[in-house]
Amino acid sequence: MDGDRGYSAPRIRLWLEQHGIRPVIPYRKDELKLRPSLPELDRERYRMRNVIERTIGRLKQSRSITTRFEKLASSFMAIIHLAFIQFYLRACDSSDTA
């Protein structure tokens, strides 16, 4: 969690809010000292970021995604769907070896 504090800057929080995104970034310690009335971190939402980060990490393992430069978004999304299907089939195959 401490590594994410580096992204806690007023300009980043302002940009997120302007784009309708509720920040889930922990405040830096110096920010909390200056303004103790800052809202607390929503820890449940912060934990859910881990799911997204792991999913993106798994997608990056797929060479067909990281090395392709599709012209159409629909083609790129088709490759993403195929990667998820491949992950799912591998998970089903490995859980059946009991």
Provide a brief overview of the structure.
The chain is mostly helical. The chain is 62% helix and 0% strand. It folds into two domains: 1-61, no CATH class; 63-98.
- Give the SSE string: HHHHH
Percent range for β-strand residues: under 5%
Question: Helix tally?
Answer: 5
How many structural domains does the protein architecture include?
2
Low-confidence runs of at least 5 consecutive residues? none
User: Roughly what is the average pLDDT, rounded to an integer?
Assistant: 80
User: Radius of gyration, rounded?
Assistant: 19 Å
How does the helix and strand content classify structurally? mainly alpha
How many DSSP-defined strands?
A: 0
Q: Summarize the amount of helix as a percent range.
A: 55-70%
Tags for this model:
98 residues; mainly alpha; 5 helices
Secondary-structure topology with pairs:
Layout: H1 10-18, H2 29-34, H3 43-61, H4 63-66, H5 73-95
